[in-house]
Give the backbone structure.
Amino acid sequence: MTDAPRPAPASRRLLRAALLLIGAAAACAQGPPRAWDVRAFGAAGDGTRLDSAAVNAAVAACARAGGGTVTVPRGTYLCGTVFLLGNVTLELRRGATLLASPDLGDYRSVGRSTEGRSSALIIAEGRENVGIVGEGTIDGNGRSFVFQPRQPHPAGFFDAAATRQGSAFFQRNQEDRDGPDRMRNRPGILALFLECRNVTLRGFTVVDAPNWCLHLACCRHAELSGLTVRNSLRIPNADAIDLASSRDVRVSGCTLEAGDDGIAISPCADGYRSAVAQDITVSRCVITSRSAGIRLGWAARDIRRVRFDHIAIRGSNRGIGIFVRGRESIEDVSFSDVTIDTHLVDGAWWGLGEPVHISVAPYLSGGPLGRVRGIRFKDVTSVGEGPVVLYSSGPGGISDVTFERCSLAVRRSPLDAYYGGNLDLRPILPAALGITGRGLSAVLAVNVDALRMRGLSVSWLGGPSPYFAAALEADGCRGADLGGFEGRGPRPGAPAIVEDGLARAP
């Protein structure tokens, strides 16, 4: 058998050129590459060398090509600020971790701030079609920004002399048993999406944020799904999800654990741009927090058309909090199929074990207060160590509140002697009204118009706290319909209902 003749050198060159042309034509037909691996741009992924320049280079190359996916493979990528650009999705593959740098010099800021926060680990500003997806992790490295040795976060916004326990309240508050820990200078936000459209955050895990965590400010059209956030329960301000002045947002299937609020809507967006927050739905989420599991307000502008369903709030200091402190109004909000478990927490956290807290009170200067109206609770089951509080500093500040097929069980707290028998209205002016000692009821309603009970039952677990005097107290409530209320007083001889100072049967 004889060998086939080999092409002459010139023929081989022509053949290679032809093959290259065919490959190029095929590539053109398929379009530009849609995925950019950060390792191809020099990322080490060893957790030691700073990889933010490589990640930013991959994002920039992806954006120049018209957009696509920047992939982060298995490894630990130490990063300062990463800027997400339009039409770019950052994909964190399984086993990949973006580790936030402990050096503040590695962070960049946007040109605006809110509550002094302008820097972030990940920034997308004025972009469309951006997101973070995948099974990897963002590690905020909050542990690097805690004072060592640990110190208590300073308490404020109240006068200890006005509390039931007096100076003992403040002393216990500052023993740093359950945090919050005092923090060194720290990055303002872990991931900031500012004035963006079509944001997708899906599937990844966040741990140990040092400050605000996933923050969407002034955004339109966003989906947050399947996220896991496990922040330290000792770090203050480490909210899991903040939706500030944003609209058309869907949050679903998330497990959130945060040292501050679990999900907060429209807190402090005025440093960026004030806008109405509306058309937001949150479903199938499990939340644990040291502050409010769910918080609405206070806000720079109105909040409206918000829906929560299939929510579990576990082991939080406050379940649901709705706050008006300026001219903004909060209206048309519903909660359905929600379970809440709250307890008193040691330390300078806000809230005193309330399953639900709604308040309208002065704090921001100037002009009349806004209002809260059109709030619906349906199939909400609560167990807590504090009361349900509906409080307006003036007549009619809260109106049209309905409880339908709801239950509340009040449990005595082992911390009653230190914190029990107080009403927490922070922030409020004058500050002496922040935390005040008073007799409590399982449901306390002050200056609420059109309060409707379509089914609300109150029960007491074990020996009730000595600071509870009735099942329901209504003061200055016009047009109340309490016919669907069921419950008895906390102890024999105690009234079930006290209305404008007069005891009556349910």
